[in-house]
Write a structure and sequence with these properties.
Elements (H helix, E strand, L loop, with lengths): L2 H24 L7 H12 L6 H8 L3 H13 L3 E6 L2 E9 L1 H5 L1 H16 L4 H20 L5
Antiparallel strand pairs: 1-2
Helix pairs in contact: 2-4, 2-6, 3-4
């Protein structure tokens, strides 16, 4: 493994740890964990029907992890699952009134966090970072470490 790859792996790990720490910090004053806050933000911003598979794809989650987050949000009263009239196997996910009351707070917290993270980064550098990040995500999703 070259030192450049080692740095990439190390830096991604550092970013992941710091990101999680920031999410925990903005979630310390309410009952929404950082992960729940991100999913609620995603659901509030959606304009079309949303299913568990959409959350799995948006956050690269496995089905059990997405299911646990959805279950917690439902038990806490932020969302509800509604049977899809076209396919009884599917459940639409809808934000409740309680969830909608969190909209401003959740959006403010996550937008402030994004502003903090991207402070001092030009739009050109941000575009390049996002392009590289998308390729890294594609590579990780392919998952073949033995090429």
């Amino acid at each position: 493994m070259t030192s450049k790859r080692k740095t990439i792996i190390t830096d991604i790990g550092k970013m992941s740890n710091l990101f999680r720490r920031q999410l925990d910090a903005i979630s310390a004053y309410d009952d929404l964990s950082g992960a729940k806050k991100r999913v609620l933000f995603f659901l509030i911003d959606r304009t079309s029907d949303t299913y568990q598979k959409d959350i799995e794809q948006e956050y690269c989650l496995r089905a059990p992890s997405a299911s646990a987050l959805i279950k917690d949000l439902e038990q806490d009263g932020y969302i509800r699952r509604i049977a899809d009239p076209d396919d009884a196997r599917l459940k639409k996910i809808a934000v409740t009134e309680k969830g909608l009351r969190q909209k401003t707070s959740v959006q403010k917290d996550l937008r402030a966090m994004e502003a903090s993270i991207t402070r001092g980064i030009s739009s050109e550098d941000m575009d390049q970072f996002l392009k590289i990040s998308e390729q890294i995500i594609r590579n990780l999703n392919e998952g073949d470490l033995h090429e």
